[in-house]
Amino acid sequence: MGNQGKIYTRKAIAQVLMISEKRAKQLTDDGIIEEFSQGHYKLLPAIQGYVGYLQSMVSGGSIDGNEEKARLTRIKREDAELDLQVKRNELHHAHIVEFIVTNSILAFKAKMETLPYKVLPQLMAIPDGSDKSERILAILKKSTAEALTELAAYNPEDFTGGKFSTGLDVPVEGDDE
């Protein structure tokens, strides 16, 4: 405690407290560190003032135990609700949705790419006549409607079981297959 009586410059106090001289001046102006004389400080009171300031910052800015427990309880409840939604097939993991949607789009693309070859023989077989354009239109509408119906078909079972995991590198929770 012999250092309590010794006087140090603001620069020395800043070095001891590991802050800048400017910050030491701010703390002095705020009454946290007490100046002995202009730009000079006693070591022990300066350290005590700064430590007290830091303690008040930590205790004032921290969450108390009850708030932390309430936050943890809220997080656990939200997690349980999400798990329940997954079990009820109301919520799906992003990688599963991405896999199924990608496969659906690829299947639709393939169907659309083969559509002209599928309908061409039917179109070629239509005899000339006044209703030729209506018959061509009907064949094209029917073929595109079939492709669109397949794309629009939503089956919740696609998101459960092991069907979707074929080719996935990502392990899926709940799949025992």
**Quick one: overall form?**
rod-shaped
Spatial order of strands in the largest sheet: 1-3-2
Mean pLDDT: 82
Number of domains: 3
Helix content: 55-70%
Total helix count? 6
Q: Describe the largest sheet.
A: 3 strands, antiparallel
Gyration radius (Cα, Å) is: 37 Å
State the secondary-structure class: mainly alpha
The proportion of strand residues reads 5-15%
The ordered H/E elements are EHHEEHHHH
**End-to-end Cα distance:** 71 Å
Regions with little confidence, pLDDT below 50 for 5+ residues = 164-177
Describe the structure concisely for a colleague.
This protein has 177 residues and is mainly alpha-helical. Helix content is 63%, strand content 5%.
Give a structural overview.
With 177 residues, the protein is mainly alpha-helical. It has three domains: 60 residues, Arc Repressor Mutant, subunit A; 29 residues; 72 residues, no CATH class. 63% of the residues lie in helices and 5% in strands. It has six helices and three strands; from the N terminus they run βααββαααα. It has a three-stranded antiparallel sheet. The relative contact order is 0.07. The C terminus is likely disordered.
